[in-house]
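The instructor's notes for this session suggest beginning with a concrete chain rather than abstract definitions. Hand out the sequence below and ask the class to guess, before any prediction is shown, which regions might be ordered.
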Amino acid sequence: MGPVKKIIEDEKNDDDSLSVGILASAAVGIMDAGCYMTRGKVFASSQTGNLLYLGMDIAKGDFSQILKYTFPVLLFMIGVTIGTRFHMHDKLKKWRLRAALCETLLVIAASFMPLSWNALANPLFGLVCGMQAIVFRRIHNIPLATVYLNGNLREAVETMVRYIHLKDSDDLYRFFLSLILVVTFLVFVIIGAFCSRFFGHFVTLIAALLLGGDVLVLRSALKRKEQKA
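After discussion, reveal the predicted structure:
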């Protein structure tokens, strides 16, 4: 079976389907572009970028931006903690659905905050991305991120090199999955940056719609599970 056919076949999986990953990755692309373009050049998901800006400002002797770049990082860490607790303490196995719904509501709340509230809005987007780093980190039971671009890019290159040398179809399969997430993220960063010209900081409501789509997909998957049980 070719990798594309296998991906389509594996979409019968439940809450770790590629469609869920695509929606989640697209939402992060919109959030990153929206926060950077309209809320003071702060990243929603790339805490490496925020720390890079922080380090350069400190090196220049500019300490005025410390809180601007530090709070999103701290809230990202709290988001990871919350996502982990969702996973550990949900005995009904609905933790992804509940976490996705929580993310959607947080994005809506942060999107409606005026630009004068950026000091709160940006950390909230960081919180959402921290949760997502735990909630949507497996696609077809393969560890892949919907938040970190670097990891998926590394996975795409590594698996392609392995496939060229070993001809293992599983490597080609993983290559396609990781490449799809990388392209999805990039495309929606472009869409988010473009749409921010027209919608301003409300552009991140598109991310809420995408995460809402994840909620519907996850809910449908749970219903199918209950029907089979």
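Then share the key points. The radius of gyration is 18 Å. The chain has nine helices and two strands.
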